[in-house]
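#lab-general

N.A. 3:47 PM
ok so I finally got the sequence cleaned up, no stray characters, all 120 residues accounted for. can someone with queue access submit it? mine expired

B.Y. 3:52 PM
send it over

N.A. 3:53 PM
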Amino acid sequence: MSGPRPGRTHDITAARHDHIVEHLKAAGLGALADLGFLGLDKDCNNQVVVTGYKATRARKLTTGQKTANRIIAAGRAPVEHGFAHLKTWRILTKLRTSPARATNLLRALLVLTNLELLDR
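B.Y. 4:20 PM
back already:
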């Protein structure tokens, strides 16, 4: 989880600002991302950020592309469930503090959430 950003910053802009692709490559890791991150990782030979395929009016998705999108969505589902679980913490709906404190609070909630899930 990154630190706060001024105003409304799009996810791909924040990822570029934080050099996510370079950090993933340096750590030897990869990431599954939604269609909002199309174009983030432009290195086709050593791609670490995998996104799905986007259909347009002029170009429909092939059966293989639809299958790939379903596989990527299945891999991302636990992360999306984690975000949804964080939203159940009612304190976040009433949060009136500085962005720096909000980031620390979210990090602490992530730790508590992970501990809660481990106890199940």
